[in-house]
Write a structure and sequence with these properties.
Number of strands of chain A: 8
Structural class of chain A: alpha/beta
Distance between the termini of chain A: 65 Å
CATH architecture of the largest domain in chain A: 3-Layer(aba) Sandwich
Number of domains of chain A: 2
Radius of gyration of chain A: 20 Å
CATH class of the largest domain in chain A: Alpha Beta
Oligomer: homodimer
Largest sheet of chain A: 8 strands, mixed
Helix content of chain A: 40-55%
CATH superfamily of the largest domain in chain A: NAD(P)-binding Rossmann-like Domain
Order of helices and strands of chain A: EHEHEHEHEHEEHEHHHHHH
Shape of chain A: elongated
Chain lengths: 281, 281
C-alpha cells in the first residue's frame, strides 16, 4: 500500500484524496495551520492527519499538491525544505513555466517531479474528471488512481505538458465566461442591455442563458479564478500569444471576489459589480 | 422618392444600398478613387454613380457611411467639408465615443446625425440582418428600409446606443472566436493539441468543430476585424471595463491579415500563423 501526502484538502483536494484512497492508497494530510472546514473535509474523505508537515513528508512516498495557483511554489518550497525525496506531483492550474519552476524546486531537494493538471469538478463518480500527468514518473502516479473515480491521463512532452492542457482548457472555459460577462456589462453600462438581449434571442439563441449561468456558477468561485487567469496570461505570453484575454479575465473575476461565501448573485447584480459607477452618474 | 448617398459599396455597403433601393430609394455612390471591384458591386446593386463626392453630397438627402471602422471619421470629415446639411448615418462598427465624434463632425457642418450599427451578414433575404439606429432622426432613417430585406431597429438612448449594441454583440462573437483560436494555438505551441482535442471531445463536444469554423470563416476576414476589435477595446475602456480581451483579439486577427484574398487556410495553418516560431526552435 502506497502512502500519499495531500497538500491540501480543499474542495478539490479532499475529493482527489478520496479518489486516491479508492485506488488503494493511504492518504495523509497535515492539520498544521489549516481551518476547521479543511479538517472536516479531510475527515469526510477518510484522510489521516499526519500532524505537522515534517511528519507527512517523512511518511509519504508521493506528495500531491492541490492548492490555489499562487501558492504552488510556496507549497513546493516548504516540502523541499524538508528534503522530500519521493515523487512530488503539482496538480495545480499553473503555467507550464511555473510547473517547471516547481519541478526545479523539489528536484533540487532530491524528489522526482511529475506535472499535473485537473480538468472537471471534484471527482465523486467516474467519468467527470481527469488528472493529466506528464514527466518521467507520470505512469507510476497514474497507476495510483487506476481503481478510483479520478481518471489519470498521461500526456507526452515532459513537465509542463499536463499544465499546458489545463491552461488551454481553462483558458477557453473561464476566459470565455469572463468575456461573455464583459459583453453583457458593456451593453448594460451603455443602457442597451435589452436591445442586446433581443438581438441574441434572434441570432444567438442560448447566449443569454449562458450569460446567466456564467454569473450564477462563477461569481462565488471568482476569487480562485483570478490566479488561474494570471497563470494563463503568463502561459500565453510565454508561447508568444497575446496575454490580454486572460489579464482581462483576471480583472473581471477580481471584481467579483466579493461574492466568496456570499449568496449567488443574479446577473444584473454581477453586471453592476463589473462596471464601476461613473463619476457624476 | 428619397435620394441616399452610400459611402462606400463594399460587400456590406453594396447590399445595404440594394436594401435601400428595395425600400424605394434612389441610391448614389461615388466612383472617385474607388476600385473596379467596387464599381462592379455598385452596378450589381443597382446604385447610380454620382461622379465626384461633391455631386453625391449635393444630390443626397441622406448619406449612409458603411466603411471600415478606422475610416469612419475620415469619411465624415470629407462629407462635412462639403457642407452636407441632410441626415448623416454612420453605420460602422465603432465605439459609442467614436460615433459621437463622427456626429460632432457632421453636425458642425449642419447635418443631422444618426448613429447606426449593422448586425448580420450582407442582407440578401429578410430576417438575416438588422440595422440598429439611434438618435433623433433614427425613425425617419428606419422608414427608408421598411420594404427591403434589411430590418431597421430603433434603439433608445441617443447617438452611441446603436454602436453600443454592435460593440457588445461583435465583442462576444469576434472576441470569443479569437479567444478560441488562441486557446488552440497555446495547446499547439506547447505540443498538447491532441490532448486538448481529446479532452474537448469528452467534455466540450462541438468545441473543436467551432474552432475549425472560427479559422475557416474568420481568417480571410481577419484584416477587417482588427479595427473593430480596437474600437471594442476602446468602448470597454470607456465603460470602465478591461480593454484586454479585444486588444488581444485585435492582435490575433492582425496575425491573420495575410489571408486577405488568400485561399481559406486549415486550422493547423492558422495556429502556426498565430504563434511566431521560437528562437532556436
Amino acid at each position: 500500500m502506497k502512502t500519499i501526502g495531500l497538500l491540501h484538502p480543499g474542495e478539490m483536494g479532499g475529493a482527489v484524496g478520496a479518489a486516491a484512497r479508492a485506488g488503494g492508497a493511504r492518504v495523509l494530510w497535515t492539520s498544521d495551520a489549516r481551518s476547521a472546514a479543511t479538517r472536516e473535509r479531510a475527515g469526510a474523505a477518510g484522510l489521516e492527519d499526519a500532524g505537522p508537515l515534517a511528519a507527512l513528508v517523512r511518511a509519504s512516498e508521493v506528495i500531491l499538491s492541490v492548492c490555489p495557483p499562487h501558492a504552488a511554489a510556496d507549497v513546493a518550497r516548504a516540502v523541499a525544505a524538508l528534503r522530500f525525496a519521493g515523487t512530488y506531483v503539482d496538480a495545480n492550474a499553473v503555467a507550464p513555466a511555473t510547473a517547471r519552476e516547481v519541478g526545479g524546486i523539489v528536484e533540487k531537494a532530491g524528489a522526482r517531479f511529475v506535472d499535473g493538471g485537473i480538468i472537471g469538478p471534484p471527482p465523486a463518480a467516474p467519468g467527470t474528471t481527469r488528472l493529466y500527468l506528464s514527466g518521467a514518473g507520470a505512469g507510476a502516479v497514474a497507476a495510483l488512481f487506476a481503481a478510483g473515480p479520478l481518471e489519470a491521463v498521461v500526456v507526452p512532452g515532459g513537465p509542463g505538458a499536463a499544465s499546458a492542457v489545463k491552461m488551454a482548457y481553462g483558458g477557453w472555459n473561464k476566459g470565455s465566461a469572463a468575456l461573455l460577462l464583459a459583453a453583457c456589462a458593456l451593453a448594460a453600462a451603455e443602457g442597451v442591455g435589452d436591445a442586446l438581449a433581443a438581438e441574441w434571442a434572434r441570432s444567438q439563441p442560448g447566449l443569454a442563458a449562458r450569460a446567466e449561468a456564467a454569473a450564477r456558477s462563477n461569481a462565488r468561485k471568482a476569487w480562485r479564478f483570478v490566479g488561474e487567469m494570471e497563470e494563463t496570461a503568463a502561459a500565453c505570453a510565454a508561447a508568444g500569444l497575446p496575454a490580454g484575454f486572460h489579464e482581462a479575465a483576471a480583472e473581471i473575476y477580481r471584481r467579483l471576489e466579493r461574492y466568496k461565501d456570499a449568496p449567488t448573485p443574479p446577473l444584473d447584480e454581477v453586471l453592476r459589480a463589473l462596471v464601476p459607477p461613473r463619476p457624476g452618474a
